[in-house]
């Protein structure tokens, strides 16, 4: 009845292997230059298992004896048992905060992850000089929580920025690749000359965007609206089609006519609220930050060895502090239990699966749900009917990334950009392509190029029904059309994210507020993660910090 426990000192070093590997939460298959096939492979961040439950118990108790901060039961110390459901970055940060930030060390923490690896959507593989991020490869600098966490974990010297000379972005239009004009802030132009000269927009389209300067603002009291409605009202249809849909909607792989502007890009809504114009507001914000010599600072950070380094560092800290991490432990149910003492506050019983097909129960004072909303709804069952309906009402989309490595001489394009974003009306079968080896330093050997292609999302919800070989062929065909590369790749990886992209649609903020209201009626139950208050890594870290603080304050 033992789930796969992460072994102390082995937080899950990424594993990899030679040519086509597909990753579905840890499973993989590969193909070489000439031929390929699907086969089982080791999971990224796959920890080694303990052989016996008794050994695991001895190790945990031994950790408590070795570390005076971790209290042992029965020694007069008030120990609170906390179960964290979900081993993505949110759940890991919650566990880390509870175990390391409390001076009296009164928490005993168990983290449960259904998959055989940690990290959620973050997956990193390293092989032959390549650093391959299947999921998120960076985080925004403007929100400091992730940067601060990396520094706290000793990863400060591992932080890297996008290559300054390659920060442009291409957009295909009328059979050619054009760069987005300089001075674009999200979808808002802030510099006149680059905007006036760009061939991406028609003259009427540019004139319509300029009307933002004089159009009246929409009263905030009118409530939420979609990204598409917001941008079309302020900047016009061309701005939606060429900028909003591929750039803003692309972050979520979602439909801009459904996604909430206030839940996805509240900073854009604030420009209208505070300045009456997106253009005036963006220019004012830029001036407030001042000017610097040389290229502007990178808006993104990554880690030299890929984003998996953050997951590995968190797992090490949790294990060192005596935390119990269990992978391959899907949560079956989370139920309330009053216990034997009717006067005591209700506790929670968490049942999870184990490697032998049996289930194990954990009684807890607090449960932090850091899993996807649909998984949380399933686990909570009948705890609260309205809560379950609200959680199930958060939609998800599926995506896949195809990572291809080429010999650099085989790629005729200079790859002098972050990559290419694809407007929907271009009718291509991919969402975007990132030139990974140009975007970041140290991602590929000097004589190689690494490119990542995105498919699926709302444009092609059936994309993941294709085989790995078919997805690789699709990516190769599209890259051949876009950047002229026809040679076979040196290696290929396919990463699948089925129902893994939360969609904050119009009304999302009100839904989340109601979820929080209901959870306050259920003492000891907390929610955090990409389904709720922001999908980016800094947003997840912030929510994890808040959830850990709420647990500590109860």
UniProtKB/TrEMBL annotation:
EC number(s) on file: 1.3.3.4
Region annotated Disordered, chain positions: 1-72
Domain of life, per lineage: Bacteria
Keyword Oxidoreductase: yes
Bias type Basic residues, positions: 30-42
Pathway: Porphyrin-containing compound metabolism
A Pfam family the protein falls into: Amino_oxidase
Cofactor(s) named in the record: FAD
Domain Amine oxidase per the UniProt entry, residue ranges: 90-551
Keyword RNA-binding: no
Keyword list, A-Z: FAD, Flavoprotein, Heme biosynthesis, Oxidoreductase
Biological process (GO), any one: heme biosynthetic process
Alphabetized GO MF terms: oxygen-dependent protoporphyrinogen oxidase activity
Enzyme class, spelled out: oxidoreductase
NCBIfam families (UniProt xref): proto_IX_ox
The protein's name: Protoporphyrinogen oxidase
Gene: hemG
């Amino acid at each position: 009845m033992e789930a796969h426990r992460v072994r102390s000192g082995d937080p899950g070093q990424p594993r990899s292997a030679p040519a086509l590997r597909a990753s579905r939460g840890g499973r993989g298959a590969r193909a070489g230059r000439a031929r390929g096939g699907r086969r089982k492979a080791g999971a990224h961040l796959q920890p080694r298992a303990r052989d016996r439950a008794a050994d695991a118990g001895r190790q945990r108790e031994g950790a408590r004896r070795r570390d005076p901060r971790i209290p042992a039961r029965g020694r007069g110390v008030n120990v609170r048992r906390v179960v964290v459901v979900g081993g993505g970055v949110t759940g890991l940060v919650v566990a880390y905060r509870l175990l390391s930030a409390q001076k009296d060390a009164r928490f005993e923490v168990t983290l449960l992850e259904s998959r055989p690896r940690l990290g959620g959507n973050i997956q990193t593989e390293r092989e032959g000089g390549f650093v391959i991020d299947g999921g998120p490869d960076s985080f925004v600098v403007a929100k400091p929580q992730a940067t601060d966490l990396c520094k706290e974990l000793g990863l400060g010297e591992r932080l890297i920025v996008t290559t300054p000379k390659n920060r442009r972005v291409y957009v295909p239009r009328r059979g050619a690749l054009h760069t987005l004009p300089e001075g674009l802030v999200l979808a808002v132009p802030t510099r006149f000359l680059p905007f006036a000269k760009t061939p991406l927009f028609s003259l009427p389209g540019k004139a319509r965007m300029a009307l933002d300067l004089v159009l009246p603002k929409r009263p905030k009291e009118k409530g939420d609206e979609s990204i598409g409605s917001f941008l079309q009202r302020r900047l016009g249809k061309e701005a939606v089609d060429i900028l909003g849909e591929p750039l803003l909607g692309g972050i979520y792989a979602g439909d801009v006519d459904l996604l909430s502007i206030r839940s996805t890009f509240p900073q854009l809504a604030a420009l209208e609220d505070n300045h009456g114009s997106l253009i005036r507001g963006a220019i004012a914000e830029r001036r407030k930050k001042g000017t610097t010599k040389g290229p502007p600072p990178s808006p993104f950070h990554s880690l030299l060895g890929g984003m998996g380094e953050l997951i590995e560092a968190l797992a090490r800290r949790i294990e060192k502090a005596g935390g119990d991490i269990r992978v391959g432990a899907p949560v079956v149910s989370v139920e309330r239990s009053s216990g034997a003492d009717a006067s005591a506050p209700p506790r929670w019983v968490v049942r999870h699966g184990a490697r032998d097909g049996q289930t194990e129960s954990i009684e807890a004072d607090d449960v932090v749900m850091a899993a996807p909303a649909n998984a949380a709804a399933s686990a909570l069952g009948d705890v609260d009917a309205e809560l379950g309906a609200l959680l199930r009402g958060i939609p998800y989309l599926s995506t896949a990334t195809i990572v291809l490595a080429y010999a650099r001489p085989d790629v005729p394009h200079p790859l002098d950009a972050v990559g290419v974003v694809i407007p929907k009306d271009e009718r291509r079968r991919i969402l975007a392509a990132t030139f990974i080896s140009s975007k970041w330093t140290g991602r590929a050997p000097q004589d190689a190029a690494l490119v990542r292609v995105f498919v699926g999302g709302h444009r092609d919800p059936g994309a993941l029904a294709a085989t790995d070989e078919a997805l690789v062929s699709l990516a190769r065909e599209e890259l051949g059309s876009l950047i002229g590369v026809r040679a076979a790749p040196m290696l290929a990886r396919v990463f699948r994210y089925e129902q893994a992209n939360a969609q904050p649609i119009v009304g999302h903020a009100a839904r989340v507020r109601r979820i929080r209201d209901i959870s306050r009626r259920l003492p000891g139950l907390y929610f955090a993660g990409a389904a709720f208050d922001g999908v980016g890594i800094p947003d997840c870290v912030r929510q994890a910090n808040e959830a850990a603080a709420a647990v500590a304050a109860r």
